Amino acid sequence: MRQVAFGKWKRSKPEKETKVERLHEGFKTWNAKMKLQYDNISKENEPPAKRMTRAREQNKAKRKANLPQGSRLVDLETRTDGLKECSFCHYGPLSLGNVIEEQHSGLASTFTVICSQCNAENTIKTSKEHRSGARGPLTFDVNTRAALGCLHTGVGNTHLNNLLSILTVPALNSSTFKNQEREAGKAIGLEAKSSCQQFRNLEREEAIENDITAAITEQQQEQYENAVPKYTSRPTVQKETFDDSKFYHFVLFDIETNSTGKSAEGCQLAAMDRASIDSASTRSTKPVCTILAGHNAATFDILILLRNGGENFIAELSSISSIRFADTLTLMKSLIKSKHSSIQNAEGKFPKPGQSSVYEHLFQATFDAHDALEDVIALRRILLSPRLALSDEMLVNRSSVISVKDAAEDLKYLDNRHHRLLSFRGKLYNPGHADSPIKQSIAEKNCWQ
Q1: Of 127, 150, 182, which residue sits at a domain end?
Q2: Lower Cβ count inside 10 Å, N or C end of the chain?
Q3: β-bridge pairing 288-294 and 323-327
Q4: For residue range 221-267, what is the model confidence (pLDDT) as tens digits?
C-alpha cells in the first residue's frame, strides 16, 4: 500500500516494527525523567535526618544538668581502664562528656557514663578500692591515703577540707574521715609494734655482743624492769548461754549517781523482780539462777555497783555462784540489728536502743527518766510487753550474761588502765587541746589494751 505524505509517496511500516520503536522511545523518556529528578535533588529536598529518640533526649538533658564541676583527684590507671570500652557492647573509648551522674564517696567519685553506641550506663571510678579489714567493706584508696597524710602532717579534717575547697575538690565529711583515720591508726599501731620489736631484738643482740649487762647489777636491772608498767591485756569475758536445766530469776536494777567519771557515787538504787519468784519456784524444782539486769549496765550500773561496794562486797557477791549480771541494752541492739518484727512499727521503722526511745516506741508515752525507780518500772514494762513476747532463752542469749567474777576482773582492768592514763596526762596527751601529740582514745587502745 502506498500513501501520500506532503505530496510524496511513502511506504508504510509493519505494525510489529512500530510497537518496538514506541517501546524504545518510552524507555528513553523514563530514563531522562529519572536523571532529571536525580540531578535536581538538593540538600533542601533531602529526607530529614533520623529523629532523636526519647531516651537520647533524656540522656542529653541529664548530661547537661549533672555535668561535674570543679576538680577531682583521679587515679590515672583506674580511669583509663574504666574508659577503655563499654561494658556491654565493648565500643570504646568512652567519653567523660557523656557523664549523666556523679556519686561522691569522700574524695573518690563514681561516674555514670552513657555509651554513645548502645546508650548503656557504665560505672567509672576515680580511685582503686581495698577491703577494710578481713571482712570489712570496700574502701577507696584515696580516702585512706588522705587520712594517713593528715596523721603524718598533724592536721585534722577541717584543715584538709580548707585546702580541698581552694582546689575546688569535694570535701571529705567527718564520718568518712574518722573511719579512715581508725583504719590508718590500726595499721600504724601494728607497724609501730613490729618496728619496736625489731629494734628491741637489735639492741638485745648488741648488748650481748658488747657485754653491756656486765656493767649493770641484778638489783639495778630489777629496778629498771619494775619501773616500766607490765603489759596487761583486757580479761576475756565468758558470756553464758541459756540452760534449760535452770530456772532464771531476773532482778531489774538501776543506779543514779551524783556525778560522772570514776569518782561518781551512787545516790539512788532501785531493784524489782521481773516476775514473782514465789509462785514460779513452787512449780519448778530446777536450781535458781538470779540475773541482775539493767539497761546499759555493762558500762555503767555494774561498774558503779562494784566500785562503790568495795572488795568485801565483791568477794561476798562472787561467793554466791548463782548470781549473774546482764545488760538489756545489748538485747535491744540485737533485736534492732536483726530487724525483729516485734519491735517494728506500722511504718517499718525501728527505735533507737536507748530505754526512753524503746519505751516511747512501744507505748507512745514517756516516763521520768534518770530516776532509779521510774527507770526500773519502765524497764520491767518493756520486758513484760506482750508485743515483744520475750522468752527466758532470748533474754539470756541476747543480754550478755556474765558472772560476778568476770565483771570484777574487767572493772579492775579498767581502773588500772585509768590510773596509768592519768600518769601520762600532760605528756602524751592533753585533754581538750587540739595540739595534743596523741588522742586519749588512741592512748587507751594502743598503749594499754
Answers
A1: 127
A2: N
A3: parallel
A4: 777 666 656 667 788 888 999 999 999 989 999 999 887 777 788 88
Evaluate the CA torsion angle 131, 133, 134, 137 in order and state its sign: negative
Span 40-61, pLDDT tens digits: 554 445 554 445 566 666 666 6
Task: Quote the mean pLDDT of the chain.
Answer: 81
Q: Examine residue 26 and state whether it is found in any structural domain, yes or no.
A: no
Last residue of a domain, one of 127, 154, 179: 127
| Residue pair 176/106 in contact by the 8 Å Cβ criterion | yes
Over range 155-170, report the average pLDDT: 90
Structural domain includes residue 174: yes
Sheet holding 121-125, edge to edge: 99-105, 108-114, 121-125
Domain enclosing residue 376, as ranges: 247-417
For 122, 237, 238, the CA distances from 409, given in Å and listed in that order, are: 56, 9, 12
- Report the distance separating Cα 318 and Cα 408, nearest Å: 9
Q: How far is Cα 292 from Cα 289, in angstroms, rounded to an integer? A: 10
* Coil/strand/helix, residue 319: helix
Model pLDDT, residue 265: 83
Q: What is the pLDDT of residues 179-211, one digit of tens each?
A: 888 888 888 888 888 888 888 888 777 777 766
Q: Are residues 112 and 150 in the same domain?
A: no
As for how many domains the chain has, the answer is: 3
Output the domain CATH number for residue 340. 3.30.420
Grid cell 541482775 is found at 292
The reported pLDDT for the residue numbered 123 is 92
Give me the count of residues in the chain.
Answer: 449
351 residue type, one letter: P
Q: How many alpha carbons fall within 13 Å on the CB side of residue 308?
A: 18
- Rounded to an integer, what distance in angstroms lies between the CA atom of residue 190 and that of residue 193? 5
115 in any annotated domain? yes
Cβ neighbours for 47, distance < 8 A, ≥ 6 positions apart = none
Q: How far is 355 from 137, CA to CA, in rounded Å?
A: 30
Angle (deg, nearest 10), helices 404-423 and 302-319: 130
- For 106, 141, 254, 300, the CA distances from 448, given in Å and listed in that order, are 32, 30, 30, 21
120 and 142 both lie in a single domain: no
Contact of 111 with 99, CB cutoff 8 Å: yes
Residue 17 lies in a domain: no
| Alpha helices in 235-343, H assignment, sequence order | 277-282, 302-319, 328-337
